[in-house]
Amino acid sequence: MFGLFKRKKIQSWEVQLLENTLSALPQDFKMYIGHIALGLLKGVSIGNAAIPGYVGFTRDADIYNAVHDPKGRDFEVYGIRVFDLMSRTYLEFSIFFSFGTVDGYSINKPGKFELDVKQIDVKNRKMRFRDNIDFDRVKKVLLPEELELVNPNDIYAVHLDNKEYFHVMEIADGDFYGVDLDKNLYKITHDPYKIEKLDLELQDILRDGA
Q1: Which of 7, 25, 36, 198 is most buried when burial is the number of CB atoms within 10 A of its CB?
Q2: Residue range 69-91, pLDDT digits in tens
């Protein structure tokens, strides 16, 4: 596995990189592993995006039509790290999604690399949406001083136990502070799984984390 060049065939390490990373991410991402197992990804398309190091996926049309979500949002999971055996360091990479399927990925190292796809670190990963639908919904209930502190890119909806929460600030290792549209504040952790309602002001949490 070396630096990316003009090619069309998807390589086995790319599939393993995706599967291992998606397995390490929260439960919501497990469906994408199922798409891969069905044979969704047919090949790659390189050099067709403005994102440095971007590798897009070509997809089986029949499988895509069966699994894609016409209302699915475009987003990126970034800040993931994978170990490079050549430089003996971790490289950052991102995975891109659209319409409920994996779109592609990018690695922040030009030239050659050799990845150990078993050494993946997702502790500091974040999500970035290419639209502001969720932020537009949340900002209606926020105070002006809270809007000054919040990062719109940090706002996205999460559905847990049949209730909608909005991620507003990462804590660590996938834990986060969230709000609902009644402006209740929660601390949500995944290990152990717990949703704790807090008797605190959102602006104090945001200010402490700034």
Answers
A1: 25
A2: 987 888 999 999 999 999 999 99
Is 124 a residue whose pLDDT tops 70? yes
Helix, strand, coil: what percent of the chain each, to 5? 30, 40, 35
Would you tell me how many other CB atoms lie within 10 Å of the CB of residue 53? 17
* pLDDT given for residue 4 in this prediction: 44
155 and 166 in contact (C-beta within 8 Å)?
Answer: yes
Q: Which residues contact 59 (CB under 8 A, 6 or more apart)?
A: 40, 41, 42, 101
CA dihedral of residues 81, 151, 104, 161 (deg, nearest 10): 90
pTM of the model: 0.67
Q: Show me where the domains of the chain are located.
A: 12-128, 132-209
**192, 208 Cβ separation under 8 angstroms:** no
